[in-house]
């Protein structure tokens, strides 16, 4: 390569680095301005309202990863992370008695000291016992290594407003493993390192941006199960995230801002 071509290439690389640095500085300025606006003028804004303000301020620079960085800065400043933390302590659970459920209960009773069990004749009745406060929790199968996510039971979580509090894997003795959950009525373990969420009606391109955005928060996606939505070119997604509890608090704020129709299915320790 002659010296003139090498000089041109070096100049182009130098211009590219400066352009990237300028872009990052602009993004940083947008985030700082939006955070200050929310903190100084509108501290009681909902996550969805914060998202609309941030989207308006960022203009052509708006992206999901940038909004995720804004959520991280804002939640740290508002101290949302520590204020919402709580542990769960269910005392009474209900389940359909069988060999797999008995093994799962043994695990859960060691995790939640003092947990007692009563028995039900079907899953619908067990879920209703929790929904109507006749029990603190119930035990449901949620996933199988042979069949994947068990969607009818996932639907029960949303219908009865139940949250996954703990999960254990139990061998069926037939070469497959079943993931069985202890689910509670409406609260989550804010100290858990796994977050399960349902995001309806999301495009595949938006899902790709979401994957990049959660990495900005410090979260990982360990599983995505997508089901075609009745709406054209849209999909419903069951997503499992992992991280420390602080980062998952940021993730929940992010999801509340960008995806108001989402449902948190649970948060638990793995």
Walkthrough of the structure:
There is one protein chain. This protein has 270 residues and is α+β, with helices and mostly antiparallel strands. The chain folds into 3 domains: 80 residues, no CATH class; 94 residues, Periplasmic binding protein-like II (D-Maltodextrin-Binding Protein, domain 2, 3-Layer(aba) Sandwich); 75 residues, 2-Layer Sandwich (Alpha-Beta Plaits). 47% of the residues lie in helices and 26% in strands. Strands 1, 2, 3, 4, 5 and 6 form a 6-stranded mixed beta sheet that branches. Strands 8-9-7-10 form a 4-stranded antiparallel beta sheet, sandwiched between helices. Helix 1 packs across helix 2 and helix 2 packs across helix 9. It is elongated, with a radius of gyration of 23 Å.
Blueprint of the fold:
Layout: H1 3-40, H2 47-58, H3 64-78, H4 80-83, E1 92-95, H5 99-111, E2 116-119, H6 123-131, E3 137-144, E4 148-149, H7 151-159, E5 162-171, E6 177-185, E7 194-202, H8 204-217, E8 220-228, E9 235-242, H9 245-258, E10 263-268
Parallel strand pairs: 1-2, 1-3
Antiparallel strand pairs: 3-4, 3-6, 5-6, 7-9, 7-10, 8-9
Helix pairs in contact: 1-2, 1-3, 2-9, 3-8, 3-9
Keywords:
3 domains; alpha+beta; four-stranded antiparallel beta sheet; Alpha-Beta Plaits; six-stranded mixed beta sheet; 10 strands; 9 helices; 47% helix; D-Maltodextrin-Binding Protein, domain 2; 270 residues; 26% strand
